[in-house]
C-alpha cells in the first residue's frame, strides 16, 4: 500500500529547484499593487472622506476654503484620536470597551485635582496616566478573569465610574485658569502658526500605534487572539494577558484624551468624555475595522475619526440647519459599512 | 536504550464525574514513530491536549527527558521541544502565512519589535523545505485563501521550525487528497531519518500501520495494547484487536503478546 501512497515527490520539485525564487512571485510583489492590497480598508475610508469633503466644498466653496473651519476641527479631533486608536486594538482582539468615556472623565478629574492643588501639570499628566492604566486594568480584569461579556461589563463600568464622579463632585466643574501659563500647556495645547499643536501629538500617537499594530509582538498577538483564541492558546500565547493588555491600552489612551480635553478648555466638567462614546465607536467601524475580530486598521480608524468629526462641522458649514447633522452622521456610517463589506474579503 | 523524550505516568483526566483518561502510561523515545490509535471517545484528543500542555491532567506525572516537570503549559511544552499539529490545524485564517508560522513565537528584536524581514525569509525557507510551495501564494498570503493541504503545510512548517524533538500529528491525513497524504508520509519519514520522534494519531489504521514503529491502542481512557511493529503481522490484525477490545471475546494470542510487551517495559 505504501508504494501506491508514495508518488515521485522528488523529480517535479527538483526540476523547478532553479526557479524556486520565481515560485514566490505574486501580483502583490509589485509595490503599488501590494500597497493597495495591504491597505484596502484604510484606502476605502480615505476615499469616503475625500468624496464627502468634495460634496461639502461644492455645496459651499467659500466656507470650506477658510482656515478657521479646519482649525476648529483640528482642536477637537486629537481628543477623539487618542481613544479611537486603542479601540481598534480592542475590537481586533474580539472585545469592545464602552467604559472609555468614564475613564476619560476619571483620569482628567485626577489631572484637574493635582493641578488645582498647585502641583506642576506634568505631575498631573503622570497621575492621570496611572489612573487610566489602573482603570483599564480593572475593567480588563473584570471582563477577562471575571469571564464577563465585554459589551455589558464595560457599559456597566461606564455608568459606575461616571456615577462615582457625579456623587463626589455633585455636578460641580473645576476651572483651571493657571494652566495657560504652564509649560505643559505650551508643549501640548498651544498653537504653532495657527495650527493647534495637539494634532501633532495625536499624529505621533497614531503612527506609534500603527507600528505597534503591524510591527510589534503586541499587535501580532492581539490579531491572533482575536482571530482564533483557541489556536493562540494552543501555541502558548497567554490569551487572557493579551486581552487585559488591550483594555489597559484603552485606559492609557482615554487618560491622554481626557487630559487634552481639559487643557483645551481650561475647565474640567464632571461630564468630561461623555460626548465621545458614539462618535468614537462610529469612527472605529467607519475606519474599516470589522466587528468580528482578528483584523483591523489603525490608519483607517484615524481617517474614520477625521471623517466623523468633519460631518458635523461640514453639514452646518455647507448651509444646512443643525437638524441635518444626525441624518448625515447615520448616512456616512451606513455607506461606509456597505463600502467595507464590498471592499473586504471575509474568511470567517 | 534510546533517549526518552517524554513519558506520561499514570495520567488521569476527569471532567466532573466523567473520566476521559483513567491512568495512562505512554512514552516516546528519540527517533521513533509511535502510532496512537483508538475509537472515538477513547481519549486520544485528551491525551494530545495533555502532551501539548493545553489541558492539565487531573493526576499523574509528566517526565521530559526523565525529569519530572511541574507547571505544565502550552508554552512549557513548546519550550521542551514538543510541537503539535492539531487536527483542526490551529491556524488563524485571517492572518498571513508568516504570522501563523510564528504564532506565539514571534521573532523579535529590540523591545519586542518584529524582525519582519527575517520572519519572511525563514517562512519562505520552511515552506520550500517541506515542499509546500506554489505559484499562487507567498508568505504574505492569507491562510483563509489556501486549500486544506496547503493549510496542513503551514501547520507543519510551524511545527518543524526550531527543530522540535517530538512532533505530534493529530489525524494529519484526515480530509487530505492522496498526493497530500503522500506528502505528509514523506515528511514523517524525513523527520524519523533526522533522528527526531513523531506521535502519529490516526483514524485510518492502514495509514498508521504503514508509518509507525510502535502501536499504542487506546480504549475508553486506558492503554489496551502496546506493541512493537515486529509483533503485529498486518493492519488487519490491529483492526481485529480493536474490534475485540470493543466487543470482548477473541484473539487471545495478540492480547497476551501485548501484555508481555507492557510488562517488559
Describe it.
The complex is a heterodimer of chains A (348) and B (265). With 348 residues, chain A is mostly helical. Chain A has a single domain (41-343), classed as ABC transporter involved in vitamin B12 uptake, BtuC (Orthogonal Bundle), CATH 1.10.3470. Chain A has helices at 2-5, 10-15, 20-23, 31-38, 40-59, 61-64, 67-92, 100-116, 121-144, 150-169, 183-189, 198-215, 217-227, 229-234, 239-265, 277-286, 298-317, 325-343, and strands at 174-175, 191-192, 195-196, 267-268. The longest helix of chain A is centred in the last third of the chain and has 27 residues, at 239-265. In chain A, helix 8 packs parallel to helix 10. Residues 1-25 of chain A have low confidence and may be disordered. Chain A has 18 helices and 4 strands. In chain A, the strands form 2 sheets. A two-stranded antiparallel ribbon of chain A has the order 1-4. A two-stranded antiparallel ribbon of chain A has the order 2-3. Helices cover 72% and strands 2% of the residues of chain A. By secondary structure, chain B is of the alpha/beta class. In chain B, helix 7 (205-211) crosses helix 8 (235-246). In chain B, 46% of the residues are buried. In chain B, the strands form 2 sheets. In chain B, strands 6-7-8-3-9-10 form a 6-stranded mixed β-sheet, with helices on both faces. A 4-stranded antiparallel β-sheet of chain B has the order 2-1-4-5, covered by helices on one side. Chain B folds into 2 domains: 1-81 and 167-265, Rossmann fold (3-Layer(aba) Sandwich); 89-163, no CATH class. Chains A and B meet through helix 13 and helix 14 of A and helix 2, helix 4 and helix 6 of B.
